[in-house]
Amino acid sequence: MYAIDGIVMNDERTSEPTTGIPLSAIQDISVQTGGFGAEYRNVRSGVINVVTKEGNPDRYSGTISFRNSPPTQKHFGISPYDKDSFWNRPYFDDDVCWTGTNNGNWDEYTQRQYPTFDGWNSVSQQTLADNNPINDLAPSGAQKLFTWENRKNGAISLPDYNIDAGFGGPVPLLSKKLGNLRFFASFRSEHDAYLYQVSRPGLNKVSSLIKLTSDLSRSMKLSFSYITGELQATTLSRGGGASYMNDVWDLASQVNMRGFTMPWRLFTDIYWSPSTVENATTAMKLTHQLSERSFYEVLVKFDEKNYHTWHGARRDTTRDNEILEGYYVDDSPEGFWGSPYFSVDGRFALGGAVSTARDTSIIRSFTIKTDITSQYNRTNQIKAGMEFVYNDLDLQFGSRNEFLPEGNYWTSMTQQPYRLSMYAQDKLEHQGFVAIAGLNLDFVDPNGEWYVLDVYDEQFYSSNYSPEQDDQFQKENLKGDISLSPRLAISHPITEVSKLYFNYGHYQQMPIAQDLYRIRRGNNNEVINMGDPVLPMAKTISYELGYDHAFKDMYLIHLSAYYKDILDQQDYTEYISANSKVIYYQLTSNSYEDIRGFELELAKIRGDWITGQVNYEYRVNTSGYFGVKKYFENPSEQRYYILKNPKQSKPRPTPRIKSVIDLHTPLQFGPKIAGQYLLGDWHINVLSYWRTGSWFTYNPNNVPGIEYNVQYKDNYSFDLKLAKSIQVGRVRLKLYADVYNVFNIKNFSGYGFEDGYDYNYYMQSLHMSDGVAGDLGYSNFTGRDKPGDVRDEGVDFVPMEWVANVETISTPSERPIYFDGATSLYMQWSQDNGWTEVNNTYYDEVINTKAYIDMPNLSHFVFLNPRDIFFGISLSYDF
3-state DSSP: the chain helix, strand, coil percent, rounded to 5? Predict the structure, then answer.
């Protein structure tokens, strides 16, 4: 949960937080990851509370900051738009581009690392062979047309930046007359470039906040807040919805083993739709001090969020670009075009099934919230409150393909659900002992009616459905649901410098609203996805036991153990009728997860030269689902499915270490020049992170019983932050630099694979242990490799092949090292000498440099996030 001055900023459509307020407006921020009081509802994993500035009633103050990183690529290695890249070399390398990649100039290993191309001679012959003389091209002309159609260079050309400014103080002329009326206004604009340019070059966020505060009396304060924001992004979905591309990982995943549409995604800007989301929150909060012991707060809030996802500007089809003498073409691939249209080589679409996502949803929400706090006696503080939330959901989103409308689907839904939450808690304090016990009650009402159907009803779920007959299906009024969430937090001092604490609580969160009420139908009216408005809230039952110990007035040791039992998580279950006319996904809550582990943290909280903390966490996750994920009406199909599909993942530990070390100089360190200690108040923050590699299943031959058998290499990172502050009167200047991935470490992304064959070539080239690969059904060279190991930079690929007998190879290659099963020797072939045993020195070099690893073909996205440097300046002032 994310709250600003008690104003919850979660999106009622997705349950995701709406963040991004100006940093200049922040007075204080707190983060809780456990032990939440009963006043927090619709929350499971964490609470972020932000307190914003009110503005001083007597003077003006403000701050402005600018932070910038020059344009630089967000991946290591060659650009995908380079002429020697995977996508371009077959079309420009003179060894193959005219007569084809299989002309014999490339060996088999080079050929499988690039797309197959028949050559420009062949393309030219095809243009001459048809009945359209307008498109006739010589081989060189076809290549020039290809160059024009592939002219996009998606490399980053704009800097990453953010501008943040805030100003506040007394409202001129009115302040004293209206209870010291004061204001604080702030603004933030930021741009984060994508991995490469798509329908937008990057993620743009603009937000602003204005806050007015008045002391109505000595015991009453009224504040008004208006928060607005706009997000401009590229949608991550092809079918509408609220997801958008947020970072380099989102885009890298979209060009990893994505089939024949991958070049469309790279060489055009039209594959994904541009998306804009606007949000506005208006809130008023009254705080009234009833007595020295009691006060209450009343908050009224109205939210509105508007989504607009559509295709971009349509293409100018005027043929006014002369790329060859007398040969004119239009602006392709720039601009949206809904009809099928392919490049001269036929590899990617310049129009057709592109920019299909559409979304014009509007979400409105009204909230009223009250809280009262009273110090009942010396040991008991009572707190109680309620919150009422009414939503108006107008969801209109889906996929629109102008060329193939039979693949279209759409969700059109209006719903007005509401919920009521009430809580009460008692905080007991006695001689350092603190106990907080509370109870939260949630009442959720979908406020509508829903279908009563058989799960295989062909008239409703199949293409037999007709909207005109919808009234014939039985519906019933939906009933609200009540749930209780107990909370308990205990802190017990053991000595003057140590304490023991225990946290227990039930925490519940609403499912994603756009899925709850969704009936997604295809172009033939068949149901694809079916919602469930009465789906229970996801529940987390959390236990935490911890110990804190301070010593020498500067060190703190924290030790905790935790367990989280997570139930009723949202998922989907597929239903398939016996005749396969009904195939759809039903929204269910059958997913569960167990999380257990412990944390150890050492912090140095004071020091003239160094402070910081080091945290170690050991975590084990187990997840699964109740029932089955797929139901067949045919009993025999159901039995076979149950036999082949496990219900629970194998638990694997994932330890991690993170640290923040602040190296700094004392405020008055070094010589004093012009009233400034130039060597004083320097800060160098070193942030580091290490995590063991994640586990996954690699089972290329579907050997029974193998699951979560392979572990990635560990990954780690180091960031550096450098800052120097200078105070001159009432003006404070701060200069800083933030360096991400300061040592330019290459962590394997897991992306960069052309297809499943490319993935298997990489995995099976690794020399993994027999315990990992020995039972996978292929000939493995034993070693200590893990996924994430790579060939040394600049080292050519030397394949290692296992063969039963080298004498049986009809066309041996001079490139590989062959292991001869008949003699147990490593052999090489040459045209001059025939078969010879591999030299030990050469063999050792291949092994030590890992030259045998067959790297992913899309080398440009194998390693992401190289070193990135931001320079910043911040100016704060008081008048």
Answer: 10, 45, 40
